[in-house]
Amino acid sequence: MAGHESHYILPRPAFDAPVKLLIVVAPYYKDIADNLIAGAKAEIEAAGGSWEIAEVPGALEVPTAIAMADRYSNFDGYVALGCVIRGETTHYDTVCNDSSRALQLLGLQGLCIGNGILTVENRVQAEVRADTADQNKGGGAAAAALHLIALSRKWGGQKEDVGFRPLSETIRLAGDNDGTPTA
């Protein structure tokens, strides 16, 4: 069974400056959401970070809340949490695919997001994955966000002096209309 396999887990990143994450959770299955939150909070705190929680009605609203928070607030990263259990209709497929796709698109725009929205066949699978003493997918989602924050801080300073020169520098190098460079 996949749940009992051994997997490599990256070492927890260290930060010179504090990190602040927003945990966005859809608590439709409250007990499962509570376990996911507990795992995420513990991982963030273990890395010396702080967190806030925002609740939304369902998994489809999680990406929208993250996009709003990124626009209006100052979080370093985000943890998306919730649970979608397969039902009798195709609504499951829509919710799983669309919430995941929206989170991925936000990530491709540069947001540091750990996706901990469980997509499972039944409640037992969700309970095992949310349990902090078992698969701890909430903690895993927080760890993913923390690793992305570490990468963004590592690479964030490399934007200067890369690529084309700014127009103001190009004009300065062109000289005073006589074509003679000033630098």
UniProtKB/TrEMBL annotation:
Cross-referenced Pfam families: DMRL_synthase
Listed EC numbers: 2.5.1.78
GO BP field: riboflavin biosynthetic process
Chain sites annotated for binding (2S)-2-hydroxy-3-oxobutyl phosphate: E88, T89, R129
Domain of life of the native organism: Bacteria
Entry's Gene Ontology cellular component terms: cytosol; riboflavin synthase complex
Keyword Transferase found: yes
Catalytic activity: (2S)-2-hydroxy-3-oxobutyl phosphate + 5-amino-6-(D-ribitylamino)uracil = 6,7-dimethyl-8-(1-D-ribityl)lumazine + phosphate + 2 H2O + H(+)
Keywords: Riboflavin biosynthesis, Transferase
Binding site for 5-amino-6-(D-ribitylamino)uracil: Y28, A59, L60, E61, C83, V84, I85, N115
Enzyme class: transferase
GO molecular function: 6,7-dimethyl-8-ribityllumazine synthase activity
Location of the active site: H91
Pathway of action: Cofactor biosynthesis; riboflavin biosynthesis; riboflavin from 2-hydroxy-3-oxobutyl phosphate and 5-amino-6-(D-ribitylamino)uracil: step 1/2
CDD domains hit by this protein: Lumazine_synthase-I
Physiological role: Catalyzes the formation of 6,7-dimethyl-8-ribityllumazine by condensation of 5-amino-6-(D-ribitylamino)uracil with 3,4-dihydroxy-2-butanone 4-phosphate. This is the penultimate step in the biosynthesis of riboflavin.
Family: Belongs to the DMRL synthase family.
Name used for this protein in its record: 6,7-dimethyl-8-ribityllumazine synthase
